[in-house]
Amino acid sequence: MTLPDLPARVAAAGLVIDGHLDLAYNAVLAGRDLTLPLDDLRRREGPGARDVATVTLPELRAGRVALVLGTLFCLPRGDAAPGGYTTPAEARAQALTQLDTYRRWQDAGLVRLLTPGPDVAAHLHAAALDPHGTPTGVVLLMEGADALRTPDDLPFWVDAGVHIIGPAWKRTRYAAGTGTPGGLTDAGRDLIRAMHEQRVTLDASHLAEQAFWEALDLTGDVIASHSNARARVPTDRHLSDDMLRAVAARGGMIGAVLYSGFLRPGWQRGHPPATRDDTRAMLAHLGAVAGWDHIGLGSDLDGGFGQHEFPDGLDRAADLTHVADLAPPGWRAALRAGNWARWLTRPR
Ligand SMILES: [Zn+2]
C-alpha cells in the first residue's frame, strides 16, 4: 500500500483517530479498569459516579477507534488532587507507572504502542482490513513535562516511545500554562531545543500564549492535541486565530476537544450539554481559520469529565464517529481520521 492510499483506506473502513485520551491516567490515578466493556465499568462505578465513564479499551475497538494519542499525564498536587506530585521524582514515578500500564495492556493484546511513520501506516492498514479484530494503536504523548527531571532525561523517554510532549499543563518547571500566564523557563528553552533535535513533536495545548510563541521560535514541529478556538470560547485554554494559523502553517494538527465547557461559552457543570450546533460552530471556526485539512478530533473524553459533560449526541467513545458528521460532507472522513493519519505518517 502506498501512503497516498492510506487516508482513503482509513475513510472507507470508517476508522476514527482521537488525538487525546488519558487512558493510563484513568487506570492508575482514577482506578478504572479500562479492560472492561463500557457498560460493565458504568455498572461497577454506579450512577452516582462524578464523571460517568465514556471510554474503555473494548469501547474504543467497538467504535472503530483505530488509534489514539495516549497520554502520560502527570498530575501536580492541588486542592482537587491531594495525591498529585510535588517533586520531579514524584512526577517521573507517575509517568513511569503509566508507561508500564500501556506496556501491560500491549502484552495482553489490548493496545499496540506505535511509532509515527511506517509503523502507524501498517497498523492503520491492518485496522482498515479488520477494524474490530485489531487492537487500538497508541502513540504516546507526555502531557506536562515535569516528569523529565532535566532535559537530559529526554532520550530515555524517546527510547520509551514518547513522540510528542506538551511542556505545560498548569505551570511546570518548563513553561507557563493554562491559567498561569508567562513564557518558557531557561530549562524550557533547553527542552524545546532538545525536542527539536530528537524529533519530538511539541504539543501546544495548555501552553500559555507567550510560551507558545517562544516555543515556535525554537521548533516548527507542533500540534495542539486538544484545543479549541479562543474566538468562540474566550479563555487561555484555547488558541487565538493567529495561534491556530501558526500551527497549521507549520503543517501541524489541531484536535478539537469535545467538553461542553470548551464548546459553549459560559457552560458549567450541571447545565444541559452543549448542542450539536455548538459543536458544529466550533468545528466550522477551526476549519475556516486553520484549514479543514488541519483539524481532527482531540476529544479528551476521559480528561476529568464524564458523559454529562459532553455535547448532545456524544454518550460514549463509540459515538466519536458521529461528531465528524458535523463537518461539511467533503471533510467528514478527514476529520474522523484522515488528517491525523496523514500527519502521523508524514515523511520526516
Ligand atoms: Zn489536557
TrEMBL record:
Matching InterPro entries: Metal_Hydrolase, Pept_M19
Q: Molecular function (GO) terms listed? A: metallodipeptidase activity
**Coiled coil (residue ranges):** none
Pfam families of this UniProt entry?
A: Peptidase_M19 (PF01244)
Domain of life of the native organism = Bacteria
Query: Mind listing the GO biological process terms from this record?
Result: proteolysis
Q: What is this protein called?
A: Zn-dependent dipeptidase, microsomal dipeptidase
Question: What organism does the record attribute this protein to?
Answer: Deinococcus grandis
